[in-house]
Amino acid sequence: MRRREKSDVGNLDLGKLSVSSVKSTYRRDVHLVKQLQKEAPKELKDAFKRLRALYQRVVDGKLKLDITSERSIKRFSKAISKAGDHLSTIFSYLEDQCGITFESPTTTT
Fold it and tell me: DSSP of 21-73, one letter per residue?
């Protein structure tokens, strides 16, 4: 997510959010991840490939979130969890192999 998009999340108007805008974002992400996959070191290619496959499932309508269906929520949650694992692999590599550090999210209670 780009810095501007990140700052705009707080101002997100759910009433204006549409399936086509979400799919458009994921479609753009599919292309970005595909490019990263091509240029990534071999240790990361699989993580990028699996991440791209998740985004493609959303774009193709094969992974949907129906908040009225417990089964749908579980399926979506499992897919997002796997994506988090792939991102962790990528971030760990960048930290360990490239010396790039990332801010830890802060939690407030």
Answer: HHHHHHHHHHHHHHHHHHHS-HHHHHHHHHHHHHHHHHHTTSS---TT-HHHH
Residue 100: half-sphere exposure toward Cβ, Cα within 13 Å: 8
Q: Contact 46/85 with Cβ under 8 angstroms?
A: no
Q: Do residues 72 and 66 make contact, with C-beta atoms less than 8 angstroms apart?
A: yes
Of 28, 49, 36, 26, the closest CA to residue 94 belongs to: 36
Indicate if the alpha-carbon torsion angle 37, 38, 41, 46 is positive or negative. Answer: positive
One digit per residue, pLDDT tens: the chain, 109 residues?
A: 444 444 444 554 555 556 667 777 878 888 889 999 999 999 999 999 999 998 888 888 888 888 899 998 899 889 889 888 999 999 999 999 988 887 776 555 5
Residue type, 73: I
* Secondary structure letter of residue 104 according to DSSP: P
Distance CA 53, CA 33 (A): 10
